[in-house]
């Protein structure tokens, strides 16, 4: 007799949408913001080139307009969403660049500016594992007691050789240490990984997922490597140094990863996309809903679900 599939709403994985509805009892949107932060991998502290895949906007291509004040960025998006979802709540998502890199007092003021906006129920803060000094950790701990909070940590891969190749500027142990410190303060941590990084095999990517599954993480974002114009990755791709994943290969890999993750981990994202005008490849990633539907179909066809093969 076939095992009964575990589902979260209409999904066979623990989606962020399901999680937020469980917590707040209604629809909650994340509004992406660009607060004008920099990155130690760009300003000379660690390096000047940034990660080889990172666009000029610091992975904030779909965030707000940095030339506008934070409140204006937020309000502009909220007004558009309210035309369809008049009673929704919102999470301010500090997405572009490294959003804990700077003065703790200045950063606190930015966070509070969004928290005081109408219908905001929490914050999501994207950062690097090596940008969490004591003053920032103290600030995050206070915020975590006052509001709903996620800290999103970029990892991309658990393999130090690849981290060096993509110019991350930190090793895997720095990520593990950051996760442990944040979790010791009871802060929810969401990790980012990228599938299809140069030189990585399926076994390499599954090893990263296996290590992720053993950490005290609350969430995970799975990104697809895509090549954007004007990046060092684009130059490497033109030289034949990057083999992009096909859609079927990517879909099967995502499902393989979901199967070995603990059921409690909230899946914040299952694919990545870039601005169409800058995207070199893979071009199939433009059809985001087709990719997501394909993952749902693969889970259904295999009669599998997140956590089916998880080993506590």
How would you characterize this protein structure?
The chain has 312 residues and is an alpha/beta fold. The chain has helices spanning 16-24, 70-82, 104-115, 134-146, 160-165, 172-184, 202-213, 232-238, 247-260, 288-302, and strands at 28-33, 89-94, 120-127, 148-156, 188-195, 219-224, 227-228, 266-269, 279-281. The longest helix has 15 residues, at 288-302. The radius of gyration is 19 Å and the shape is globular.
Helix and strand topology:
Layout: H1 16-24, E1 28-33, H2 70-82, E2 89-94, H3 104-115, E3 120-127, H4 134-146, E4 148-156, H5 160-165, H6 172-184, E5 188-195, H7 202-213, E6 219-224, E7 227-228, H8 232-238, H9 247-260, E8 266-269, E9 279-281, H10 288-302
Parallel strand pairs: 1-2, 2-3, 3-4, 4-5, 5-6, 6-8
Antiparallel strand pairs: 7-9
Helix pairs in contact: 7-9, 9-10
Q: How are strands sequenced across the largest beta sheet?
A: 1-2-3-4-5-6-8
| Number of strand segments | 9
> DSSP strand (E) fraction?
15-25%
Mean pLDDT: 92
State the major sheet: 7 strands, parallel
Low-confidence stretches: none
Spell out the key features of this protein.
globular; 312 residues; two-stranded antiparallel sheet; seven-stranded parallel β-sheet; 37% helix; alpha/beta; 9 strands
